[in-house]
# Entry
Amino acid sequence: MNKFVIFAFFGIFSLGLLGFNQDAYAHTIGYKDQYAPDKWKLTNFDTDGYLGFHTDVSIRLFGGDDDTKEGLPGDTDYKLKEEIPCDGTIKFDWIFDGEEVTEGSGPLYDPSGYLINGVFHQVTLNFGGEVQSGSEFVPVSEGDVFGFRIHSLDNIVGPGIFVELYNFEGPLCIGDLDDEAYLSKPSEQFMTLEKARNIATGINQHWPNWRSWVGSVASCTCKSSDVPDTWTLTVGGPILAIYHPDAAREYRSLPVTEYSIPNHLVAIHGQQCTYDEFHDLIAVFGNPSSGTPDFWSPETGLLTMNHHNVDVDTYEEFRDAGLPSEYHETWTPNGIHLNCPHFGKDIEKLLQLTIREYRFLYGHNQAGPLGEALFLLKDDKPENDKSVCGKLTAFIKLVNAPGNKSLQEEDRTKLTAETNKIMTNMGCK
# Structure
């Protein structure tokens, strides 16, 4: 067993020895994932409170002011529909606006706070100001039911209002596992879009700089001919067609093991770069053909299933939901800022324009100089690319040939201008 495999196994085995700090890492920020607005339910008991709004950022909740219950107490509860699936801490900030403080009213008559398993924990001060605010840190356990409550003692003189419940954080859980534990020792499970989003959120929280680190030590290049010889190459095939439909080849780097958070569990990353048939990098945000960095590199031998469980399963959920851009928020293609040229695609578009719009054909095979230029760009010999400029020059001569009667003067001008633009970008002389 080589040193790398020993290192990888030690990183996973350390899960049972080191544990992890849930309060520091295992939270989703905002009302998202298990805490999204559709995961909550409003219930009134002997009063008429209501929800002002609930976004992924904040909540506004109105307590009761039901004059048909004048003088009687009532509760407005806003609770999660499901139990919290793992231990951790719920955090939130709050602003409360209650009854005007007079001799016969004030926040005393609308005490408000949060619920744990139906037990009320008041956060407002009975004899405080009309407007109050604070921050709460609430330990919770797997199986707890959490919620907010505004209690009305008398159902009159105006409601108590949680003007804003914001900066919410809650334990981020995947099935029966905390997200950090799962990411460090992933297992096969029935994946859903919600779980895929939890994984993506957990990656960005626990390993916030992993993509930039991978890109700094294993970067994609504009041309496939510049990829390091040590990288693994896949050319075509059904797997590539399924996961990167317009890519002709992909390269994966050696595993990247240097990056980890101190006193934190280790994952083994890698880089993936995809190229089109002209050997140009495909790196477009939201384009499923683009290669993406691997949180768990498939080049890790015995740990290949980690790649499947974290990278592949999540991708399939985002892809099937038509959300490749959301997937790329966590697995952002390396090279999207390189401004790589795509001369092959540019010439291919010019050829299609020539044939479809201008009906300028080249005979039986419809190849001509542009087709020959594309052939040179597609072969595996980069040294032949320099001959492309000559083919483009030949195309311009053909377009402007005195005996060419299939094109109008305006058409000749447009095609010549488009070709010259490509030649300028290529640096043709």
The chain has twelve helices and 17 strands.
